[in-house]
Specification:
The complex is a heterodimer. By secondary structure, chain A is mostly helical. In chain A, 73% of the residues lie in helices and 0% in strands. The longest helix of chain A is centred in the middle third of the chain and has 42 residues. Chain A is flat and about 70 Å long. Chain A starts with a helix and ends with a helix. Chain B has 2 domains: 79 residues, no CATH class; 214 residues, MetI-like fold (Orthogonal Bundle), CATH 1.10.3720.10. Chain B is built from 13 helices and no strands. In chain B, helix 10 packs antiparallel against helix 13. At the A-B interface, helix 2, helix 3, helix 5, helix 6 and helix 7 of A face helix 1, helix 2, helix 4, helix 5 and helix 6 of B.
Chain lengths: 175, 326
Amino acid sequence: MSTLKRISARFKLGSTLTLLALVVVWSLPTLGLLITSLRRRSDAEVSPWWDAVIDPLGTVWSTDAYQTALESGMLDALINTFAVTIPATILPLMVAANAAYAFTFLNFKGKEVVFSLMVGLMVVPLQAALIPVLRGMVWLQKAVDIQLLEPTPLPGLSIQLLPCHWRFTSFATTC
Amino acid sequence: MGDIIFGLIAVTIGIGVSYGLYWLLNALLSFLPEKILKRVQWIAFLTPALVLVTLVLLVPIVQTFIWSFMDKRVENYVGFDNYVALFTDPNFLSVLVNNFLWVLVVPAITVAIGTAVATLTNQVGPTREKIFKTLIFMPMSISFVAAATIWSLTYAYVPPGRPEVGVLNSIMVGLGLEAQPWLTISDGRLNTFLLMAVLVWLQVGYSMVIISAAIKAVPEETLEAARLDAANAWQVFRHVILPQVWGSIMAVFVTVLILVMKIFDVVLAMTGGNFDTSVLALEWFRVFFESREIGPASAIVVVLFVLIVPLMYVQIRTVKQQEELR
């Protein structure tokens, strides 16, 4: 008993096993998705994904799903993702770093108030500002004649689940 | 290919122009004499941030507030009609209950699991710690909609007679119980709790990372002192570690709380707000994008905004406290 206890203490058996259980639960959903993506649709509809794990040799593995995704415009969506992500990462950093310098090293009237305002506004739900911003863009679009909200086919935004992109653009045209 | 080049050019120009703006502001100010410069230099650093915040947040928020007292097409003022309509609608009250449940459950559980994982991984040695942390953190990099897709495999329900493909229902059948259409069961808000699991799954990684860093920063001497006083593992955690990481725990709690107040994507992607799972942000989305009723939609968002205002205070206080610690 005492040896068992010592080994258990040495390898931190309790903590490790608890974590192991948690990690398995945490990884299962993603694992399921990965395996489902590598199976044929007809198989995935009639048998659960772990059947493929239990019997890997009897399963037909296929990359059809990836091909379908690529052909249905995933590449465009990927480009859009980058076109949004890169500026959306760099620009806030640029603006924030400059503002942070002002708040840290410079002294001016109302510093505390402006700082609190900025921090407080972080919490505001974007929805609170979205309708007027959308209207503003439509107005800008009409004023400068640049298509900001052109209903381009962006499959990345109109994820098959929710045709929210066409809703967005169709709204914008009537705004 | 053309798209890639176009995107690249757009991104480069956008970033370049923004950088140029700061450069220009700075260059303009440098013509001023030293004495005045010192006093107005903050303008160069802060103006773009202020202009952005004013244009895309402050002014629109005021506008939304005004619109919430107007009709569907924002042509006439209707007083408090939109709000009266909301609070006499049983459906909206059910939405409020859902939001309340989300706020009550998700941040607490997320922080609790995060603290537990952070404490446990701290004990098992560097190799295992890295592996476990990576796997727990992984969902953080998955978008909400993708997470919803992943979890729909877990909650999947097939009509009776066909083989089960969902994890949860397979377990039910394995235990000799009947398969359930999980996401449609609103008794006791079961489906809302199932949606919460998705968010907890996503956010525990974040909570773990922050709290783990705080635990590692706990001075070794304090732990040593507690051990010399013959404190057991639980006592060390409860009376030595926990008080020292409490600030970080609260910071994580507030961050997750704010996120949960605005929760939207997970619900939209998994149930579309049907079966009594709708939340405020989703209700706003429906009224605005599907019914195109600007006034009522603004009223919903103002309700959400008012509920969030106390959190603004908490947020400002938390950030200021962190500032003072430095």
